[in-house]
Each structure stands twice: as structure tokens, then as C-alpha cells.
Amino acid sequence: MKCPDCGETLTQITLSGSDQSYRCFKCGGFWMDGWVVNRLNSKMLSKWMKIEVDEGWLNLGNNACPVDDAKLVRYQGENVPSNVVVKRCERCGRWWFPTDSLLDFKPAQEAKVNYFKMWGMATDVSALLLPALGLVVVVTGVITGVRVVQQKQEARIEASALVSNFGTTNLGGGNVLVGFSSPVVIREIEYRKAGEADWLRVSVKLEGKIYLVKLSGIVDGAGYEVRILGKTFVFEVK
């Protein structure tokens, strides 16, 4: 795989201990999956030194995804400082941090997480949402997962196709964040504990391109069903 900036061959590395990421040791860029970005912290990155870059090298690449050759697009949002360049392949969902920008991005992200915690806003995750191939949310600097264990069809294919990127994150304290995408306007979803007869309704909020809703009273170790436009998703709290 070639560096999008300088054209040098990328070297495979491990940043979090279980990932397959890549770095350009000529210009310093990092290439990785979205979940890796969220799992990293400044301590994990402390062993990676910044690389002195000749600006002329950055004209030798083609700004293309190392995997599928699609053009990389700069991502700009409230969760990325305006002075930090972060790019993403919209086809495969992976991230490119040019010229050591990852080493600047993570301390800034952690500072924002700490701000939310200090002011008692740890569950207000909209400003901390980092788009990825699937929904990944940073709440305390470490991803706390809720595993989606099953999806089952309950209605017409036409309706179920309108819901995608379903994901859940355990916020702790009996709260679970649910996120999903849909091209249509959705105001409410239904959920229930597996095995129960009655569905509970809850309002959802659109944050950018992702619908978000916090479910309360969730029991660890139990299974739950979420129904959106006739499609049912089943998740288990871990």
C-alpha cells in the first residue's frame, strides 16, 4: 500500500495491541480503522516520534485510499480541531492522519472528553462522535462495547432497507446509547427486554447524519430488542 501524500510504501504497525495499522516513515502519516482511532490514547502514542518532513515530498502522492484508490476527503467537524488535518476514505471508512497529525489530534480529543467529564456532561456524546465504518462513540476515552448479536427481519424488505449502521454503546449505570442511520425522518423507536410482550417507545434525536437515543433501565447481561421501521435489532449488554 502506498502513502496518499508522498507515495512511499506504508509499513504495517500495531498501535493498540490488536490492530493492523500502517505508517509512512517518510512523511509520518498514519492509516487505520476508525475503532483504532477511538481506542488510542496519548500514552499509547508516546513511543511514536514526529518525523521531520520536507514539504516537497507531499506533492508526490495522489491523495488516494491505499486500499481501494478512492479519493480521500478531509473530515471537518466539532470533534476535530480546525488546525488538524484528518482525512477519510468514504468507501472503506478508514482514516488517514497526514504528517503526524494523529499525534496532535489525540491530545485534543482527550482534552474535550475531560471537559465533558469535568462539567458533568459525559453522556452528551454528540460532540464526541467520531464517524467510522460502524458506529463508535468515545465517552471516557476507552470504548465500552455492547455487542450486537443478532438481527432479524420482521417486515417488508423495502422498509428494513431504510435503516443502516445500527450500533450500541454501553454508557454504564443502566444506560445504553443506540445509534443508526436512515434517509427518512424518524421521531420514535421501540424497544423491549427480550421475552417481554410490551414495547416501550422513546424519542430519537438526529445528530448530523446519525440518529441517537439513550435507553435507560438496561440490565447488564440481558438481551434487548430495538424495532425501527419494522426491522428488529437484538443486542446484548456486556
User: Strand-and-helix sequence, N→C?
Assistant: EEEHHEEEHEHEEEEEEEE
Name the average pLDDT: 79
Strand arrangement, major sheet: 1-2-3-6-5-4
Dominant shape: elongated
Describe the main β-sheet briefly.
6 strands, antiparallel
Low-pLDDT sequence parts: 122-127, 132-160
Instruction: State the separation between the terminal residues, measured CA to CA.
Output: 36 Å
Instruction: Give the beta-strand count.
Output: 15
Using the CA coordinates, give the radius of gyration: 20 Å
Q: How many separate structural domains?
A: 2
In brief, what are we looking at here?
The protein is α+β, with helices and mostly antiparallel strands and 238 residues long. The protein has four helices and 15 strands. It has helices spanning 34-39, 42-45, 101-118, 157-160, and strands at 11-13, 21-23, 30-32, 73-74, 87-88, 95-97, 147-153, 164-172, 175-181, 188-193, 200-203, 205-207, 210-215, 223-228, 231-236.
